[in-house]
Automatic annotation (TrEMBL):
Protein name as annotated: Probable cytosol aminopeptidase
Similarity annotation: Belongs to the peptidase M17 family.
Domain Cytosol aminopeptidase: 344-351
A Gene Ontology cellular-component term: cytoplasm
SUPFAM superfamilies (alphabetical): Macro domain-like (SSF52949), Zn-dependent exopeptidases (SSF53187)
Subcellular location: Cytoplasm
Chain's gene name: pepA
Native source organism of the sequence: Azospirillum brasilense
TM stretches of this protein: none
Active-site residue list: K276, R350
Database matches in InterPro entries: Leucine_aapep/pepB, Macro_dom-like, Peptidase_M17_C, Peptidase_M17_leu_NH2_pept, Peptidase_M17_N
Cofactor (UniProt): Mn(2+)
Top-level taxon: Bacteria
């Protein structure tokens, strides 16, 4: 998809999209177009249920009085509700309405209703950003798709009074959109293509955007003593990897300690010896979603030259049953020196994260830690597919992550922690066990396990199991891998560590 910005002028072909506010209120450009078409826009709205609500669309084919092929009316709602996220949804609605229409190009007359707080140039950029997010499609393996089923839209031109400033604003958003697409690609790849070794190799290519990459192989992991992570991987034909990504964007900062982002990267999760049911197991290719988000976030920070020091660490394993697989009842020694009785081999992500959390703290002495993982099915029972679960030992960190999530449309919900939950993972033969004694509070118990590997510094755990993959289209997220967390972490960095 190509994006351009131009002064308002009606094209001679293609489609014109016109924004309409609540109660069918046309802006100046919309009223002018309505007059040129002999009132076609007004009549069409009156004859339909279209009222200008957010993301509503109404197509008018071959309107009289103009040369182009159709008008697409797009609802934007009330001016006071027209946030950055709402404008992105408008862009997404345009793509959704036209992508299978056969149309190849659309010009958008962006009429902003009164009461809004987003400047016109920024609004144009946000609309294009949303359209780019919604236009994502993973079609790498499609070979027989019919032409009429393929997306047709190739170009969006946003018409605005200040196209040059809008283009510059979009230029700051484009690396983030590209990184979201990169993350979705990783999550969508099948496990016979993406394994711990091949994913680590893909990470090496991120030196092209300026990241420093180090890959720790099995020999190095053994030397370090990452027994928890290695135990998960030992049933697979693929050796584990830990990838360390560094971005030193603030070399002269008074506090040069990096922000540390940690990701669970189980490239396929059968459950191991505690094997999962067959139904739906194909979805476990995205059990590396937390790692993908960390990789995408680090790519975004480097691509936009973020003025921050950050490190991303991802533990990459495949959890398979075999003659060499970890057994229920095994005891492993983590990098921290703490021992873990493995009760359930399907509670493997926390073992991977434990060693990565310790490595991050010992090696980089970070200012804070944020880990992301498709950790528990229990978080889906608690929150569905609308929010990710947030756990934290620091209120400031939790509040800022919550705020960042709200602002970009990736909402979090903070869940409790406490000693009563922590006691549930005490083991009779080791320092701890990897699951609790019952089925209750599974997500909280997982977070309590991770907390045992966090030293005295701010830490947050984000359980993205319910939001890493979507089974339906939403405003800016087509069905499939969502990359939930990339925009959230990028906004968290920009707002609270770059002063933007």
């Amino acid at each position: 998809m190509k994006f351009a910005f131009a002064k308002p002028a009606l094209p001679k072909s293609g489609t014109v999209a016109v924004t309409v506010a609540t109660d069918r209120a046309l802006g100046a450009a919309g009223r002018d177009l309505d007059q040129k078409t002999g009132g076609t826009l007004s009549r069409a709205m009156k004859a339909s249920r279209f009222t200008g609500k957010k993301e509503e669309t109404l197509a008018i084919l071959a309107p009289a009085g103009v040369e182009f092929d159709r008008v697409l009316l797009v609802g934007v709602g009330k001016g006071e509700d027209l946030s950055e996220a709402a404008l992105q949804a408008v862009g997404g609605a345009i793509v959704a309405a036209l992508d299978k229409s056969g149309e190849t190009e659309v010009s958008v007359l962006l009429d902003l209703p009164d009461g809004g707080t987003v400047a016109p140039d920024a609004a144009a950029a946000e609309l294009a950003f949303g359209a780019q997010l919604r236009s994502y499609r993973f079609d790498k393996y499609r070979t027989t798709e019919k032409k009429e089923a393929k997306p047709s839209l190739k170009k969006i031109i946003v018409l605005t009074a200040e196209p040059d400033t809008a283009k510059r604003a979009y230029g700051r958003l484009e690396p983030l959109a590209e990184s979201v697409a990169y993350t979705r690609d990783l999550v969508s790849e099948p496990a016979n293509v993406l394994n711990p070794e091949s994913l680590a190799d893909r990470c090496r290519d991120l030196t092209d955007v300026g990241l420093q990459i180090e890959v720790l192989d099995l020999k190095k992991l053994r030397k370090l003593g990452m027994g928890a992570l290695i135990g998960v991987a030992q049933g697979s034909a693929f050796e584990p990897r830990v990838v360390v990504m560094r971005w030193d964007g603030a070399p002269d900062a008074e506090d040069r300690r990096p922000l540390a982002f940690i990701g669970k990267g189980v490239t396929f999760d059968t459950g191991g010896i505690s094997i999962k049911p067959a139904a739906g197991m194909e979805d476990m290719k995205w059990d590396m979603g937390g790692a993908a988000v960390v990789i995408g976030t680090m790519r975004a920070l480097a691509a936009r030259k973020a003025k921050v020091n950050a490190v991303g660490i991802v533990g990459l394993v495949e959890n398979m049953p075999s003659g060499t697989a970890q057994r229920p009842g095994d005891v492993v020694t983590s990098l921290s020196g703490q021992t873990i009785e493995v009760i359930n081999t399907d509670a493997e992500g926390r073992l991977v994260l434990a060693d990565c959390l310790t490595y991050a703290q010992e090696t980089f002495k970070p200012r804070l830690l944020v880990d992301l993982a498709t950790l528990t099915g229990a978080v889906i029972i608690a929150l569905g597919h609308e929010h990710a679960g947030l756990f934290a030992n620091d209120d400031w960190l939790a509040e800022n992550l919550l705020a960042a999530g709200r602002s970009v449309g990736e909402p979090l919900w903070r869940l409790p922690m406490g000693d009563a939950y922590d006691k549930d993972i005490n083991s009779d033969i080791a320092d701890m066990k990897n699951v609790g004694s019952g089925r209750g509070a599974g997500s909280i118990v997982g977070a309590q396990f991770l907390k045992r590997f966090v030293e005295d510094l701010p830490w947050a755990h984000i359980d993205i199991a319910g939001v890493a993959w979507s089974k339906k289209d939403t405003a800016t997220v087509p069905k499939g891998g969502t990359a939930f967390g990339v925009r959230l972490l990028d906004r968290f960095v920009a707002s609270y560590h770059e002063g933007k």
